[in-house]
Design a protein that fits this description.
It comes from Aquibacillus koreensis. Keywords: Hydrolase, Metal-binding, Zinc. This is Cytidine deaminase. There is one protein chain. This protein has 5 helices and 5 strands; from the N terminus they run αββαβαββαα. The protein has 133 residues and is an alpha+beta fold. The radius of gyration is 14 Å and the shape is globular. The structure holds 2'-deoxyuridine (DUR) and zinc ion.
Length: 133
């Protein structure tokens, strides 16, 4: 499974987006170190703020399946530039991804931007801040 194949899985996941409000479909595909792929799409709600992004759906599916070691994430939407994950997803990613984890962002024209977790969310709040005395 390489980054191109992972992006194809994100595009496939995007087709399942439940987006009656924004009509903005997003897909994500998360590759574990053990070689499994978890797909996610955004899922909206009439109470708008409880909607969930594609990235978090993929991550929560994997975590709830007992997976904790991740290799790469791909995210895709029909945007002009490769789709930038929102701040809430960046925070959730930083909980589970190493600083060097690769995040491939893309669009339907196959423009691609790959960045590391550290670049995506520098100076992030994490568990070591909680434990400091
Ligand atoms: O990276 C992103 C950006 C936005 N969305 C979703 C949230 C909402 O359902 C819709 C419009 O913001 O797109 C994602 O799933 N991922
Ligand atoms: Zn998000």
């Amino acid at each position: 499974m390489n980054d191109n194949e992972l992006m194809l899985r994100a595009k496939k996941a995007r087709e399942k987006a439940y987006v009656p409000y924004s009509k903005f479909q997003v897909g994500a595909a998360l590759l574990t170190k053990s070689g499994k792929v978890y797909e996610g799409c955004n899922i909206e709600n009439a109470a708008y703020p409880v909607s969930l992004c594609a990235e978090r759906v993929a991550i929560f599916k994997a975590i709830s399946d007992g997976e904790t070691a991740f290799d790469q994430l791909a995210v895709v939407a029909d945007t002009e530039r490769p789709v930038p994950p929102c701040g809430s997803c960046r925070q959730v990613m930083s909980e589970f991804f190493d600083k060097g984890m690769l995040i491939h962002t893309g669009n339907l024209k196959d423009d691609r931007k790959t960045i590391t977790m550290e670049e995506l969310l520098p100076f992030s709040f994490n568990s070591s801040d909680l434990s400091h005395k």
